[in-house]
Amino acid sequence: MAMTRVKICCIASVEEAWVAIGRGASAVGLVSEMPSGPGVIPEALIAEIAASLPPAVGSFLLTSRQDAAGIAAQQRRCRVNTLQLCDRMQTGTLDDLRGALPGISIVQVVHVRDEGALAEALRVAPHVDGILLDSGTTRSATKELGGTGRTHDWAVSREIRDRVGVPVFLAGGLNSENVADAIRQVRPFGVDVCPGVRTDGLRDRAKLGAFFEAVESLRI
C-alpha cells in the first residue's frame, strides 16, 4: 500500500507543529475564525507557526470565509502555502482565488452527509488541488465546519476518491483505533486528525504516537 500522508490539525504553537513533524506529519492545520469547533488561534500566531515550518511541510490555513477577495487577503496575512476552504464560496470563484494566489494550493472541504457529497466533489474538483472529506454540516443553525469527532459513510468517501481525479484527504472522527480500517476502505492520499490525538483539548503524545503507529502499520 502506498504511503498515506498524515495532516495534524488544530496546531496551537510552533512547538506543537514540530512535535507533529518530528513524528512524521507531512502537513499541519492552522484554524482561523470558525463558527464552532476546536483549535481556533489568532492570525498572528498562524503566521508565526507557518513561518517556522520547513518548505516541504504543508501549512494549511483553515478558513470559514466565503469570498475570494477576503480569503486571498487572509492568506497574504498568514503566509501559508495551502488554503483549506471549509465552506462553499459565495462571492467570487475558486478560479478567481487561484488567479489571485499563484503557487498557493487550494483544498476544498466537502462534508459527507449523503450521496450529494459526490456531486459537490465532482463540481469543485477541476478547480482545486485536493479535496478533504469531513463530517461537518453547513445546514445547522451554527455551522460545523470541522473538528466534530464524528465519522461518516466511508463507502461514499471511497466513491469520491475513485472519481474526482485529485488527491483526497479523509477526516472526521479518526483515531488510532479506526484509522487503519479507514485507509483500507477509502485509500485516501492523506488522513487528517484533530480530536483523535488530543485529551481535554490538549495534544496527547501517547495518542499522537499511537495514531502514527496505526498508519505506519499499513506500510509493512
How is this structure best summarized?
With 220 residues, this protein is an alpha/beta fold. The protein has helices at residues 14-23, 43-52, 68-78, 94-100, 116-124, 154-164, 179-186, 205-216, and strands at 5-8, 27-31, 58-63, 82-85, 105-111, 130-134, 168-170, 190-193, 198-199, 202-203. Helix 3 packs parallel to helix 4 (94-100) and helix 5 packs parallel to helix 6 (154-164).
Query: What's the architecture in CATH terms?
Result: Alpha-Beta Barrel
Helix content: 25-40%
Number of strands: 10
Helix/strand order, N-terminal first: EHEHEHEHEHEHEHEEEH
- The helix tally amounts to 8
Rg, rounded, reads: 16 Å
Q: Output the structural class.
A: alpha/beta
Mean pLDDT: 93
Detailed description of the structure:
- With 220 residues, the protein is of the alpha/beta class.
- It has a single domain, classed as Aldolase class I (TIM Barrel), CATH 3.20.20.
- It is built from eight helices and ten strands.
- The strands form two sheets. The chain has an eight-stranded parallel barrel, surrounded by six helices. Strands 9-10 form a two-stranded antiparallel ribbon.
- Strand 1, helix 1 and strand 2 form a beta-alpha-beta unit.
